[in-house]
Amino acid sequence: MNSRKKHSRLAGLLGGTLFVAASFLATGAMAAGLSPDDCIKCHEKPPQDINSNGGAHKSKVSCIDCHAGHAPKKIGNIPQCSQCHEGKAHFKLQGCLNCHTNPHTPKVITIGSNLTEPCLTCHTEQMAQLQQNKSKHTAVACSTCHRERHGLIPDCSHCHSPHVEGQTTKDCLTCHKAHMPLQVTYPDTTSSKLCAACHDDVYKMITANPAKHSKIACAACHQAKHKMIPKCQGCHGEHPHPAQMHAKFPQCGQCHGIAHNLNK
Q1: Looking at residue 116, what is its pLDDT?
Q2: Is the sign of the CA dihedral 38, 41, 42, 44 positive or negative?
Q3: What is the mean predicted confidence (pLDDT) over 11-16?
Q4: How confident is the model at residue 9 (pLDDT cuts 50, 70, 90)?
Q5: pLDDT value at residue 8
Q6: What's the number of CA atoms in the CB half-sphere (13 Å) around residue 135?
Q7: CA separation (Å) from 47 to 39, 57, 83, 85, 206?
Q8: Nearest partner of 184 among 217, 137, 134, 227, judged by Cα
Q9: pLDDT tens digits, 180-234
Q10: How far apart are CA 52 and CA 108, in angstroms?
Q11: Which residue did the predictor score with more confidence, 117 or 263?
Q12: Closest to 79 (Cα-Cα) out of 90, 67, 91, 62
């Protein structure tokens, strides 16, 4: 009797094992025969997401390349990002889904708060500019300005008051580069009113002066680079007055005061 029970149990275990093995084999066979067209029959949204913002997931891989087999019989059919993404510093970061919240739309990147280190794995040039040209921008996290979504170019007015009414971010960037804002450069067409926002006393002085300098734009003399101090000879030549006068008054300012108030 005991022998029969043992044989019965063995037969049951063997049958169960064969059933499980057959199930796995069937799942593998099914996976081998699946195509993305089969996936779409149940999973409508992922293909739509991939078509809109899939990046390389749209053009270089199919459903089956990532999802081998089918749940629930196939365990672990949600792949790890490192299965494909490797070889770059960015791919070594942990928590891919913190920014790439939907693996089917990897180009839609959600930016968290107080982020800088992950950004540096791609944007090394921008960080070099910030570090080599210290300013208040150097001290803030990348996500302070580039918040909410990747690729966002913020309006300067979110933090900074405009120099003049109606000034746009495009106007700001004419003189100030975002990652090295204190390295001020500008074209000779720059409006003097923009300069007046910081140099108001000088602007009022020169515009109230009857000399010809009052009609000239700031950028006509202070060319190309901020804080550039021009020489009078650049416009007036080496000897605009008789030699005897130059001998007695070798410095222009001895008679003309300062460039912004020639009658001083």
Answers
A1: 92
A2: positive
A3: 46
A4: low
A5: 52
A6: 15
A7: 9, 10, 20, 20, 65
A8: 227
A9: 999 999 988 898 988 998 899 999 999 998 888 999 999 999 987 888 899 999 8
A10: 10
A11: 117
A12: 67
- Comparing CA positions, the residue from 79, 64, 65 lying closest to residue 34 is 64
Length of the chain, in residues? 264
State in Å, rounded, how far the first CA of the chain is from the last one: 126
pLDDT at position 163 over 80: yes
Measured CA to CA, the distance from residue 60 to residue 78 in angstroms comes to 18
Taking the C-alpha atoms of residue 141 and residue 145, their distance in angstroms, rounded to an integer, is 8
